[in-house]
Give the backbone structure.
Amino acid sequence: MSHCRVTVLISGSGSNLQALIDARDRGEFDADLVHVISNRATAFGLQRAAKAGLASSVLPHQAFNSREEFDQALAALIASHNPDLVVLAGFMRILGPAVIERFQNRIINLHPSLLPLYRGTDTYQRAIAAGDREHGASMHFVTGELDGGPLISQVRIHVAADDTAETLAARLAPREHDLIVATSKLFCQHAIHCRNNQVYSGDAVLQQALRLQPDGSFLE
Ligand code: GRF
């Protein structure tokens, strides 16, 4: 059986990319990590990709005159490795129609909040400022709406009274790693898909986000 071809887009440390690599190496994620793309040449995740022997590319957004030109180039670069799935793992650029429409229903994003709460940045700080008792991370299919595409899965953590954005982010990170692996796996196993802006689990429309359990599985 042919493996699911996965391209991962990063901008920074790439710890979520590492989680995908490690899961694959442990035999828990049956996928070909065919390509890593970073919009920043200095992203540490590129070193992780090299160490794992993965093909990688840098596409610096500053090198383009417009968002549209960057998007066109990114779409061509993604297409060059013919992925079944594109995972945005800490990729800090907003994608335009040239990418989203070309790879419709095949791009998933990890976002550090319990969407629909806190789209955009500074999510930890915003959750603390609001006095939230829970924070977490979400994965969703990517549409033209920033952090607004159909939700697939979430993981929740408790917010402690003395949490700072840093402590909260540090506690969430390993759970995000579990979430990105488990969710990518579901897609690659054809257990979930997206159609007409809705997520399907098998033949049924998913009514709420799948919730990651402590053991890394999903409660239905
Ligand atoms: C993660 O916290 C993710 O939720 C956010 O950016 C961070 C990326 O971390 N979007 P890494 O580059 O995978 O280490």
